[in-house]
Amino acid sequence: MNKLFKTLAPIALAITAFGATAADPFPASGKVITIVVPFAAGGPTDRVARDLAEAMRKPLGGISIVVDNAAGAGGSIGANKVAKANPDGYTLLVHHIGMATMPTLVRNIPFKVESDFEYLGAINDVPMTIIGKPSLPANNFKELTTWIGQNKGKINLGNAGVGSASHLCGLLFQEAMKTDMTPVPYKGTGPAMTDLIGGQIDIMCDQSTNTSSQIEAKKVKAFAVTTPKRLTTPALKDLPTMQEAGVKDFQVTIWHGLYAPKGTPADVQKKLNDALKVALKDPAFIKNEEGLGAVIVSDKRMEPAEHKKFVAAEIQKWSPIIKAAGVYAD
Predict the structure, then answer these.
(1) Which residues pair with 95 in a beta bridge?
(2) Cα–Cα distance between 254 and 256 in angstroms, integer?
(3) InterPro entries given for it (predicted)?
(4) Where in the chain are the domains?
(5) Of all helices (H) and strands (E), which one includes residue 313?
(6) Of 200, 220, 222, 320, which residue is least crowded by CB atoms under 10 Å?
(7) What are 275-315's pLDDT values in tens digits?
């Protein structure tokens, strides 16, 4: 018996050492999933990630999901953190349209957007809003256009930092208004909004997830939304589209997606994608997001391959715009 034990013991030990990881269920009890947000806490992408974390907990067996804000360099610092993470499904990334702009916007980007991540699916589409400081003399878009024409070279256009959604929208807004404005970048949407409310900057183009509550509280003036159709949320329902306001072909929608490091096991990817799909139908998640003007994704972009195809098309769309503007996030 002792001889048999001595023979089998090393085999059993080897199975434990090398086979346990493969056999462990995902997610394992006691583990924590970290969702990295490549922007400051309190911003629109942070809010989406926190809503999503709560909605994904139940379909993943009640596992703890925390949000880690790793801001900087056009969103590439946080993205790189995930690209270099252990591909075990416990470190994920929620990123917005920056996934499509980083390849052009960030010099010497330390990863490849299209090949260093596993695409888990799209989350939502978020409209942008054109807003101004409360003391701005304009009260509608026509008056805003007149005011801009009268103040060429004197207007401060705030944004949440180079590469942020508000920065990208601001580039298009300047082009549409056919005038130069002074860009004022901040380290996040929070401080930018604070200065807009305080009158230190004049205008900003930002996501409805960040502006709706400020518009509803009348802390800022709102002039238009960037969607093809008017929105139905209480804070935004009376705002015209840019098309209605007389600006043709001005449509900007900021989308968010979920990603894992390249090499994450296929079965783990499927469990995360399944949990994402359940979360996108969660009533509390839908209520939170739609209350901020966001539209939950319900089309084929919920599938990893389709979301990846969509991001590739967005890279092609934004690359010439960024190159023409000559802006970079170092």
Answers:
(1) 257
(2) 7
(3) BUG (IPR005064), Bug_dom1 (IPR042100)
(4) 31-125+254-325, 127-225
(5) helix 304-325
(6) 320
(7) 999 999 999 999 999 888 888 999 999 999 999 999 999 99
